[in-house]
Amino acid sequence: MALLHDDLRTMNTRANSVESIVVPHGQVLAAENKSVVSQFAQKERIQIAFYNENRKLIFATAGKEKNTLDQMDGMHQSGDSLIYIKTLKNDSRPDVSLKITGPKTTIVGLNLVYFFFVALGIAVLAYRDYLVRSYSRPIRFAARMGENLLEGSYNMIASDSVKRESILRLNLAMNRISDAMHELHRSYTRQQDSMSTLIENIGNGLIFIDGVGRINYVNQTFKEDFQTSASHWELADYHEVVPYEEVRELIDEAFETKEKLVRQLQLSVHIERKHFDVSCAPVLNKHNKVRGIVVVFHDITAIKKLENTRKDFVANVSHELRTPVTSLVGFAETLIDGAIDDKELRDQFLHIMLHEGRRLQSLITDLLELSKIEREHFKLQLSQVSLSNVLDSVLFMLKGKAEAKKIRLSHLQGNEGLIMGDAFRIRQIMINLITNAISYTPENGTVSVSIHERKQEADFIVADNGMGIEKDQIPRIFERFYRVDKARSRDSGGTGLGLAIVKHLVEAHGGRIHVDSELGKGSTFTITFKKSPSLIG
Ligand SMILES: Nc1ncnc2c1ncn2[C@@H]1O[C@H](COP(=O)(O)OP(=O)(O)O)[C@@H](O)[C@H]1O
Ligand SMILES: [Mg+2]
């Protein structure tokens, strides 16, 4: 309606202009104004026509006009054109009708375009508002969910029952991202856990140096092996904190050569010299640049020690064997060379040879015994054993030996000592200890043995009033072939392996050994056996 009104107003204004041209003084002046009217029509892009009182055409500016005016005053529409008719009042002569024809587009069309744009604008605004409202909530939710994911919280779930497809896809994608990130996080944590468990329990000292030579990580074993807290090491240059030149050089070399290097190094840790297998493994990126170096310290001190013990052992065994063999060969040669004819000499030599032969025999027996006991799969034949019963039979066997040295061997009153153990091995323990007590006690001495039972344990005690052992020697007498007084020990017929065998057997029983001794006054060996759980009452 507003548009029609606008058209009407425009047409009205035009009609008034034409009227003011052609009716200046109440009279329609036709001829002299025709050109002015034509100019106006041209300027306004309209057509102007005049009709007389009989509605017959008087004048038209351009184009074809019907000769007769059919329409009445007012606005009319004809196809694309608008027609406006107005009666011009003529004072003296009859009235004249004015007809203005103009194209609709220039007048109404323009407004339509405006209207369209305004409507479109409003529609766009409304739609935008609608879109903003319907998208902003899920987007805000997605944003919050994303922030939570970044902070490591995976408990938000986007709705999967929304109608709008794009939002549904967004929600499903967010849920999948959340699931994937959660799984990633879990597997990362798992990996990190197993990695740190591995690094901490690898049993070797480990340091990790980054590509520019800063120490990134030092594990607990390293700190223990090198007795350092190493807290000042983190992020320090390895040149400044690693206290061993050999190690620093090895790391330098690994940086240069980009190759894994392994070297056996002897490093001082406080008062000790320790042996390590040090390996430097560079971590390379795909451009073959060193990203870091893993240095692993494998403590082989114990292995080295064992290696040395083994070497010592072989030397000791050879030495122990050589003495009786040399003696045997020597006397045999002397006999062959003629001593065999001297009866007295021959008997004396044969006795020595028998003695040496027996020594050799017992040495070989003990060696075989020790190697059997030390074997990894050595097993005790466990049964219920009465310590006092075993002791009685051992005393019966050793009675003669004690008597020969005029030593009083007595079984003191005590308990029965029921334990779970290997009777044969317990017998071995007792024989070795009592033989020692007899051997290292001078004539007329005393050796007393006893069994003491307690609630969960039973003690076997051998006490002598013999030569005794110096305090600092006590831990050493259990070593193989260790003797406090070498010459005297060999004379006593010992092999140097007795206590080593005792120690192994007691340990196999889960027992303990305690030695009390005073030089010149005597020694007391106490073996503590555990009673088996079923016997504890
Ligand atoms: N009862 C004891 N009194 C003094 N010294 C002892 C006693 N028992 C063992 N020893 C010392 O311990 C060393 C090791 O004993 P052992 O292993 O039985 O070897 P062996 O008796 O063959 O020498 C002996 O050589 C001796 O010096
Ligand atoms: Mg002995």
From TrEMBL:
Transmembrane portions of the chain: 107-127
Subcellular location: Membrane
Record key words, sorted: ATP-binding, Kinase, Membrane, Nucleotide-binding, Phosphoprotein, Transferase, Transmembrane, Transmembrane helix, Two-component regulatory system
Residue ranges annotated for the Histidine kinase domain, each copy included: 316-533
Entry-linked InterPro entries: BphY/WalK/GraS-like (IPR050351), HATPase_C_sf (IPR036890), HATPase_dom (IPR003594), His_kinase_dom (IPR005467), HisK_dim/P_dom (IPR003661), HisK_dim/P_sf (IPR036097), PAS (IPR000014), PAS-like_dom_sf (IPR035965)
EC number(s) given by UniProt: 2.7.13.3
GO MF entry, a single one: kinase activity
Matches recorded under CDD domains: HATPase, HisKA, PAS
Catalytic activity: ATP + protein L-histidine = ADP + protein N-phospho-L-histidine
Main location: membrane
Main EC class the enzyme belongs to: transferase
PROSITE patterns: HIS_KIN
Name of this protein: histidine kinase
